[in-house]
Write a structure and sequence with these properties.
By secondary structure, the chain is an alpha/beta fold. The chain has two domains: about 220 residues, DHBP synthase (Alpha-Beta Complex); about 90 residues, no CATH class. Strands 1-8-2-3-7-4-6-5-9-10-11 form an eleven-stranded mixed β-sheet, with helices on both faces. Strands 12-15-13-14 form a four-stranded parallel β-sheet, covered by helices on one side. It is globular, with a radius of gyration of 20 Å. The two termini are about 35 Å apart. About 45% of the residues are buried. The chain binds threonylcarbamoyladenylate and magnesium ion (MG).
Length: about 325
């Protein structure tokens, strides 16, 4: 008989626990940590061996690079080449849910950037993350704390469900406030900023701050990304196991007419029809509430024994772009 593997310990954020976890990070161990977007699986970003453990624990392919989290502008300057556009966006949105892709400096191990000459960097706002990072005093590489390809975790329990027997430390910071991963913008050419992944900092906000349009990565860039770097650009990503079908708008009688083993997720409607298999992401149309609940609703329904999840797309722009991006990935097979 094989011995069951030890389960991760979930830590409350006492000063003593934070000190212990900071020391574990400095020693090269992995710690799952809350950020304002989703939980991350953190390791010492300048320690190649520590970062290799992230890929093993997540079963993440080595060609999918990590985001490095910094606590200060000075820490950023130590690992990346900055420019005026980066300064503008950092001044406006950091700390916060925005990741910048910049030319990398050589101190960053190749494993972090999957051998690319660029590095993705962000400064999280979550107070526990910041406390832990200040105690550790190092930049932290951290992808979302889920097995590769599955829905990102927004609670410590989600992290334990997915990685509980593959890591040792989980810091519990409660449910995350934003609920979808950070916006990623490529600033390698500051005159042509490219949106690599939509998030809570919207395309419109970025364009206003920079004074120029922020377009998607070009076809060619996107193809190169799929072949190599995939900023969450892999078609199947954030995916529940249950098949997902998207609807621009449910027809009025659709859920009622539908199969009982299929679930129906409303986006916004004051009174969704009642039924055991009918759910609402938000009933008042607040996109922030929908984003915050999105992944935990997908996880709950994925465990609910349904044969298919029908989901209504978010209306409008802004945060809707991020929500619909994650829904499309969840629906792609
Ligand atoms: O909100 C977030 O961004 C969370 C929290 C933990 O910070 N992190 C997160 O990491 O979502 P991850 O690894 O699940 O997604 C990061 C994406 C990856 O898909 C990766 O391809 C892209 O960022 N990325 C990393 N380095 C890059 C680079 N040098 N160029 C382009 N994309 C990059
Ligand atoms: Mg991820």
């Amino acid at each position: 008989m094989t011995k069951p593997r030890a389960q991760a310990r979930v830590y409350r954020a006492t000063p003593q626990n934070l000190r212990r976890l900071a020391a574990a990070l400095r020693r090269g161990e992995l710690v799952a940590v809350p950020t304002e977007t989703v939980y991350g699986l953190a390791a010492h970003a300048l320690d190649a061996k520590a970062c290799a453990r992230i890929f093993t624990a997540k079963r993440r392919p080595p060609d999918d690079p990590l985001i490095v989290h910094v606590g200060s502008w000075r820490e950023l300057e130590a690992i990346a080449e900055t420019n005026a556009a980066a300064r503008t966006l950092a001044a406006r949105f950091w700390p916060g849910p925005l990741t910048l892709v910049l030319p990398k400096k050589s101190v960053v191990p190749a494993i972090v950037s999957s051998g690319l000459p660029s590095v993705a960097v962000r400064m999280p706002r979550h107070p526990l993350f910041r406390k832990l990072q200040r105690l550790a005093g190092i930049p932290l590489a951290a992808p979302s704390a889920n097995p590769f390809g599955y829905v990102s975790p927004t609670t410590a329990a989600h992290v334990r469900d997915g990685l509980g027997n593959r890591i040792r430390h989980i810091l519990d910071g409660g449910p995350t406030r934003i609920g979808v991963e950070s916006t990623i913008v490529d600033l390698r050419d500051p005159a042509r900023p490219r949106l690599l992944r939509p998030g809570a900092v919207t395309r419109e906000e970025l364009a206003r701050a920079l004074g120029c349009p922020v377009r998607d990565a070009s076809r060619r860039q996107a193809r190169a990304a799929q072949a190599q770097l995939a900023p969450g650009m892999l078609a199947r990503h954030y995916s529940p196991r249950t098949p997902v079908t998207l609807h621009a708008r449910f027809a009025r009688n659709e859920p009622a007419a539908g199969d009982r083993r299929e679930a129906w997720v409303y986006f916004a409607r004051s009174t969704p029809p009642s039924g055991k298999n009918v759910f609402a992401l938000t009933t008042n149309g607040d996109l922030r509430v929908a984003a915050r609940r999105l992944f935990s609703v997908l996880r709950t329904l994925d465990a609910g024994g349904f044969t298919r999840l029908h989901v209504e797309l978010a209306p409008g722009r802004g945060l809707a772009e991020a929500i619909n991006d994650r829904l499309r990935r969840a629906a792609s097979r």
